[in-house]
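Quarterly update from the structural biology core.
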Amino acid sequence: MIKNKFKNNKGSIFIITLIISEIFIFMALAVINFYISEQKYIKNKIANEQALFVAEAGVNYYRWVLYHNHNDYCNKESCKSAPDYGPYGPYSYSDASGNTVGYYELYITPPPLDGSTLINIKSVGWMKDYPSLKRTIEVKCGIPSWSSYSTLSNDEMRFGEGTEVWGPTHSNGGVRFDGLTHNLISSSLLSYNDPDHSGDYEFGVHTHKNIPPQSGINESFRSLEAPPNSVTSRNDVFMAGRTFPTPIISFNLLDNYISEIYLKASANGLVLPENSGKPGYHIILNPNNIINIKSVNSVTSTCNGEPTDGITNETNFLSTTTPANGIIYVKDKVWVDGTINNMRITIAAFEDPPTGNTTDITINNDLKYTNFDGRDSIGLIAQRNINVGLYSLNNLTINAALIAKEGRIGRFHFLNSNSGGCSRTYYERNSITVYGSLATRNRYGFKYTDGAGYQIRNLKYDNNLTYSPPPHFPTTGEYTFISWEEK
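Predicted structure, tokenized:
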């Protein structure tokens, strides 16, 4: 009995030992599987994060490509069409030792034909050993246009009382500002001798407006607005501040642009020849996308030797739709007005050859948008002046980006007289509102200290102009990132 009992116990111990061993092995395998799964999870997580870095490297690479060639939208490959505009690649991504550790593909959406500089870059990245783990980054980038300022000048500027400005303002000369500005004003000069009064040098950006609670303007030299005094904030004038000196923005950058826009107009735009023996052309923009072009046969007489720029006789010349690339290049003087709806257009006026300094653009009647979300855009580029004539509207609205390459934007100083071709009725006008931007080589002005011109001047900046200017408008600088998001 004792022997049988021992045998029975021995069998039970074996079974218990076997069960414990199985439990131990099961637990060990579970631990090992957990460790392997955890290691796999960690490696996948690392690879997933690294894939994002690879995708970002693809975006940065293509920004480098655009830096060297603003018009390379296909990475020197055969261009891919919509809707995907890709993929280009895959391109290898190497570590510090030169070993390929990942890849990325690019999808490049070029700028629209309306002249915008906006490019969409999508980059899909993954690691070499984890091809199924992909991350996607999509960015928008663009080149700031020449119209990144509400007002840009190569000369001293004076903004008098009654001027209100929305948008940044810059002058390569000095700025005297006696109105109200809602954005930053900058000058390339630390100080300058204001030509409108005698006295010593004042700050590059200064004001003659009296400090509240005093009102009015002090026309003489302002010692508090001159070195070596500290620059005060003057929030009653400079609501967003003032800064000086800042780098010069060279108007010489426009020299090469003229030949470029002429070639574009010749290819897919409209070129109007010199209107021989006549003052020029009148371009009327219409909301139905029809552009009426008239030959100007005669104009009003001068006032004290200055052109009054009123049209007295004109005949039909051409009716057309908006050119394919939105460019009208005129080899003569131009009058422009009208209203647009879902139209983007640039009108340039330069004599042939474009080396002189005599061709102007005149705006006497409203030039207006229907939409203010970027769908409507007008660019006017004159070889010399952009004028508002004597017989302009009493309350004039101009929705456009304006550039006077060699001259100035403004209104001539017409005399308060009914003689010499002048008209006292039109000597003084009420208000002018510019929604867009102004770039003028010489000093701008719509009003003079004796009261001539527009009593109220509202300069409102169109934010759409920075990266989505009128068709093929001049740009400055390099491509910069506007938005970044992971898809």
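The longest strand covers residues 130-142.
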